[in-house]
Design a protein that fits this description.
This protein starts with a helix and ends in a 5-residue tail after the last helix. About 15% of the residues lie in helices and about 30% in strands. The chain contains six helices and 14 strands. This is Peptidase S1 domain-containing protein.
Amino acid sequence: MLQTVCLLFLVILPWSASGAPNNCEIVGDVVTIKDVPWQASIRSDKKNICSGVILNTKYIIAPSDCVAKKALPSLKVSVGSSSRGTGGTEVGVCKVTIHPQSGKKNYGSNLALLNLCEALKLTDSIKEIQVIDKEPDLKANATTSGWGIVSWGAMLRKPCATVSAYVLRKLDVSLQDAKSCSKDRKRWFGMSTGITEQNICVTKKSDSCSFDKGAPLVIDGKLAGIMALGDCSKKPEVFINLFHHKTWLESNSKDK
């Protein structure tokens, strides 16, 4: 086991030392947190597990499967830093509210609200973002942002993913409807893809690795979705369409 770990380290080290190679296909432009000040990184036991988005000074939106089984004392939210894992402001999580329809069988409502133990202080690097108030227009100009995917599967397939996992990037994207997205993500033997009408997707032009789960989808300065499924394939990325959950988000993100 130790030999395997050491070998993996030696494979990854050249990318960490000299930057990603040209064929790594890391997409998006490098940006600072001031370009996407609503971006958050969620950690458990000091490990980055996914991205989140600042809904308001006390609540973070995140994918439910990132946090559902995590002990509250282990959960931290980092905001205000371009570099994942260093700098910025780190705040504890005092409560996690899981969407009642969240489950592993579909990606339409896998949402969680993280109630922070203390309110964030808004700055140029830490800002709230409003949820979209209408069904997203598939022809709209949209962007996603985040750090690279942190799953071991991605890192083993593309060692350069260890570089992108800590560099904040932003990407212009094209939207795709849930029905055609489901066809493009079809599984063997007719198994359900888990994609519903409560999803919206983003097309991919190459098999580059996605941003991490929880990455925001932004249209006209408003939050349209968060990533529920992404990988290192050419298949479309799946986002939860937050317009369908606006009432739930509003009613559960107010301090009683």
